[in-house]
Amino acid sequence: MRLATVKLEGNETAVVIAGEKAVTVEEVNKAEGKKWATALFEIIDSGQLNEMTDWYNREGKEKILDGTIPGIDAATLDYKPLYRNPSKIWGIGLNYVDHASDLGEIAPNTEPASFMKPTTSIIGAGETIRIPHQSERTTAEAELGVIIGKACKDVEEADALNYIAGYTTIIDMTAEDILQRNPRYLTRSKSFDTFFSFGPQFVTPDEVEDLMKLEVSTMINGELHRKNTVDHMTFNPLNLVSFHSKVMTLLPGDIISTGTPGAVVINDGDVVECRIEGFEPLVNHVRDLKVVAKEEIAEETGV
């Protein structure tokens, strides 16, 4: 099943997507006599996702496609972030050996190089990444996102899949020039507003035939920058869930951004994308706040 959060009539609400059609969960509830939550985070947090997925695979997909449940054209959806307030966002640095070599660094090979990001960095598909005044070199990184489905503590890798609600596309930003001054500046370099885009769609595990063979691509202005497959990660997604569950309890809706095959420098006017085979692409435009400020001054002064 594929879910998303979209804006309809001024409100953000969850929709179920089947092919070229989408229906709000509210419409599903009316048509099917259900009482499912109408916000994606609440669907995950309440434990209703498995029941919804079973319904979708049993009969829901067919009812959406044949119009039994009134829907809308999925191509017209105004996507928003899947949700805005997860308890935790974990990021994983240098998880592909090739990416580490890009930066002239040695990839961690005994434990993941993880960091956390604030919820204030979240944006969604179609929203604008803003390069901050403090950075002259900001990068964007396409990544596979893993979303936790239930409380997860001290879980072994072999059991990790049982705690995963689904997957999504992510673009993670880094003020690389700040980070290169001192590795202790990692948190600051990762935490500016708009530095974490995720969505547009949430994909349940049953839709993913082979997690390890998913191909993740960082795109810039329609051109491929770098791609790689999940099985070339140093620490695969199941390992990451297990490892971090032994650090702290992972909660429903928590996000693990699993690392990028390659970071690309972004500039004002660029369009950056995360493409994962079988997923709806995540696309964001870029504005540099330094350029914006100059444009505003020129407009005010006429110079």
From TrEMBL:
Residues 88-287 form the Fumarylacetoacetase-like C-terminal domain. Pfam families: FAA_hydrolase. Keywords: Hydrolase, Metal-binding. One of its GO terms (molecular function) is metal ion binding. The keyword DNA-binding does not apply. The keyword 4Fe-4S does not apply. This is Fumarylacetoacetate hydrolase.
